[in-house]
Amino acid sequence: MAILAEYHKPQSVAEAVALLRRTDVRLRPLAGGSQLVGALETRTLKAVDGVVDLAGLGLHRIFATIALLRIGATATLSDVSSHSVAGALAGGILRRTAACEGPVNLRNAATVGGLIACAEMDSEFYAALLALNASVIVSDGRHETSIPLPVFALPSSHHLIIAVTLPIRTLRAGHARIARTPSDRCIVAAVAVMGDGVERVALCGVGERPLLAGGALTPPDNWKGSAEYRLAMADVVRHRALTEAR
Ligand SMILES: Cc1cc2nc3c(=O)[nH]c(=O)nc-3n(C[C@H](O)[C@H](O)[C@H](O)COP(=O)(O)OP(=O)(O)OC[C@H]3O[C@@H](n4cnc5c(N)ncnc54)[C@H](O)[C@@H]3O)c2cc1C
After folding, report:
1. I need a surface site. Which of 48, 87, 108, 161 has the fewest CB within 10 A?
2. Residue nearest to atom 28 of ligand 1 (CA)
3. Is ligand 1 within 6 A of the CB of residue 48?
4. Beta bridge partners of 29
5. CATH 3.30.465.10 residue ranges in the chain?
6. Which atom of ligand 1 is nearest to the CA of 31?
7. What CATH number belongs to 62-167?
């Protein structure tokens, strides 16, 4: 069992960042807890004295204007799926890929900010955000900065992801995946988005985190698939996703 010395539930981003800046204790942001709690319980993650719960910051809201969708960092994958604009974007690609992230109890807890912070290589939802040209809004408690998702890295441990923004355009999408079973996490997957002068494909399972097709691929070589297999299958899923989007 993890023993945490401190638990905080601040009511503003500035207060949360001030807690994360403390040098006398090592505090970590807690969102849905679906990854963090397990890592603390199993002690995979060490050197954490306490958590800063983000649930009181009001970052769960999803706003849509004519041109832009803004998804708050603590919106859950289920919130996104059921939102009238977010869930329907590009033929419902966020809803579709959210369903691949895990069972409904996980989707009810896991947040968009947590998913971006984790950047798991097989996250198809993350790949969909890449294909939809997402940017990540981070805050240091005073200023907000927008960072394009393909080059995103949290500037420091006292910055918080506070939202993700997506341009709203009329797009078609395709999604293809290879997994051991339909309900399993993917070995490789592709999300393609097309229309309005745009054609973008994002891939999972061929790098440290999901990435846009076109750059260098650095697939892992593990029990789920060799690097050679992953490279060959990346071509297959990319082709299938593009064909569906067309
Ligand atoms: C059964 C199961 C299946 C899973 N399947 C998948 C999967 O298919 N794909 C996948 O990607 N992940 C998967 N995960 C991992 C995890 O659930 C997701 O990555 C999830 O989205 C994490 O979000 P969370 O809100 O629960 O984050 P938490 O667990 O609360 O936090 C995760 C990490 O992100 C940091 N963090 C959270 N929010 C912020 C923020 N706003 N700003 C800065 N840092 C932040 C935390 O400090 C922590 O280090 C799975 C987990 C489980 C238990």
Report:
1. 108
2. 33
3. no
4. 52
5. 62-167
6. 30
7. 3.30.465.10
In testing the pocket of ligand 1, which one of 7, 17, 30, 35 has its CB within 8 Å of the most ligand atoms? 35
Could you tell me the distance, in angstroms and rounded to a whole number, from the CA of residue 37 to the centre of ligand 1? 9
Q: What is the pLDDT of residues 150-171, one digit of tens each?
A: 999 999 999 999 999 999 988 9
Mutate which of 40, 118, 122, 180 for ligand 1 pocket (most atoms within 8 A of beta carbon): 118
Instruction: Supply φ then ψ for residue 238, to 5 degrees.
Output: -60, -45
Q: Could you tell me where in the chain the CATH 3.30.43.10 domains are found?
A: 6-53
- CATH architecture type of domain 172-245: 2-Layer Sandwich (3.30)
* Residue carrying structure tokens 């849905």: 32
Considering the chain, what is the average pLDDT of its residues?
95
Q: What is the pTM of this model?
A: 0.95
Compute CA 34 distance to the chain's CA centroid, rounded to the nearest angstrom: 13
pLDDT in tens, 121-142: 999 999 999 999 999 999 999 9
> Residue 35: CB within 6 Å of ligand 1?
yes
For CATH 3.30.390.50, the residue range(s) in the chain are 172-245
* CATH architecture assignment, domain 6-53: 2-Layer Sandwich (3.30)
How do strand 68-72 and strand 135-139 relate by DSSP bridges? unpaired
Query: What angle do helix axes 89-98 and 124-131 make, rounded to 10 degrees?
Result: 160
Which amino acid appears at position 186 of this protein?
A: C
Is the pLDDT reported for residue 1 higher than 70? no
